[in-house]
User: Which sequence fits this backbone?
């Protein structure tokens, strides 16, 4: 079955490091839209962003990779992933 | 250039079926490609995956594939295949931005800027492509040189004039401040000698324009 026809996966990511909340939120929203992922920001401050997402499993992986790189003015040092399926 | 405008990006002849070429207009990087059925496409020259220029990619029928990771896009700009995820039905949100485009007067034209509604470009008379030439001089100084020719008129991005070698239709593509590409066409039936003479005329124009800048 094609990946995007499988039941959507859900995951909660915590990206920790040096976070500029505005640009990180904008970056996350853009990437989520590009990957057709539903995004819910659980918590966001200068040290961490906690994001709940759902979408095609392969695209959640892509989202994790994109966000681990982050926008240019943020530095992600650690990613914690909790799959909710 | 201000507002929305049709801008010529290439001589139609120079983009053969199954090929792509990168260009720049008003500082925007653009890919012009033609599918194997002959339809021309004008897109932002940037793969949404890693930013690689799509102009380095490969045309596959009515798709174009990025050189970098093989992401393949259909004629609507939507990604249809990600080779690293063969089972994935790619969502339509993964796409390349497209420009409105048309072909007329032996040139491929695009509506700039991106997302512009430029209306329809009136059909131009049939023409024979001669050559494109890039001049390292400002748009205004090149336009003034063209206007020095007999019966010269510039409407939008098209100059028409009567040169010593016959009538010319010249598409003016602003590359960036200080650089312009001219796409030159002439009347059907022009002889090889005439076409060569127009090429010489264009090179003289370039030398003169660039000399004025250097002076």
Assistant:
């Amino acid at each position: 079955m094609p990946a995007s026809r499988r039941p959507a996966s859900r995951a909660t990511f915590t990206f920790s490091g040096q976070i500029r909340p505005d640009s990180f939120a904008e970056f996350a929203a853009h990437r989520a839209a590009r990957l057709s992922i539903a995004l819910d920001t659980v918590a966001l401050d200068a040290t961490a962003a906690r994001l709940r997402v759902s979408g095609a499993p392969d695209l959640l992986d892509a989202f994790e990779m994109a966000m681990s790189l982050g926008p240019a003015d943020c530095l992600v040092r650690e990613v914690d992933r909790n799959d909710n399926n | 250039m201000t507002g929305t405008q049709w801008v010529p990006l290439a001589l139609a002849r120079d983009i053969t079926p199954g090929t792509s070429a990168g260009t720049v207009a008003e500082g925007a990087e653009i890919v012009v490609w033609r599918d194997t059925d002959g339809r021309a496409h004008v897109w932002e020259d940037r793969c949404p995956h890693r930013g690689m220029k799509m102009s380095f990619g490969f045309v596959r029928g009515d798709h174009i594939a990025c050189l970098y990771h093989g992401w393949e896009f259909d004629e609507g700009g939507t990604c249809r295949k990600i080779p690293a995820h063969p089972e994935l039905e790619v969502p339509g949100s993964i796409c390349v931005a497209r420009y409105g485009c048309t072909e007329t007067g032996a040139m491929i034209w695009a509506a700039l800027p991106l997302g512009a509604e430029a209306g329809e470009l009136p059909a131009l008379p049939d023409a024979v492509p001669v050559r494109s030439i890039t001049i390292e001089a400002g748009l205004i100084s090149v336009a003034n040189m063209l206007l020095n020719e007999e019966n010269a008129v510039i409407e939008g991005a098209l100059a028409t004039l009567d040169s010593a070698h016959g009538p010319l239709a010249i598409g003016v593509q602003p590359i960036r401040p200080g650089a312009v590409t001219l796409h030159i066409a002439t009347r059907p039936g022009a002889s090889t000698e005439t076409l060569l003479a127009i090429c010489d005329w264009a090179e003289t124009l370039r030398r003169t324009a660039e000399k004025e800048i250097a002076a």
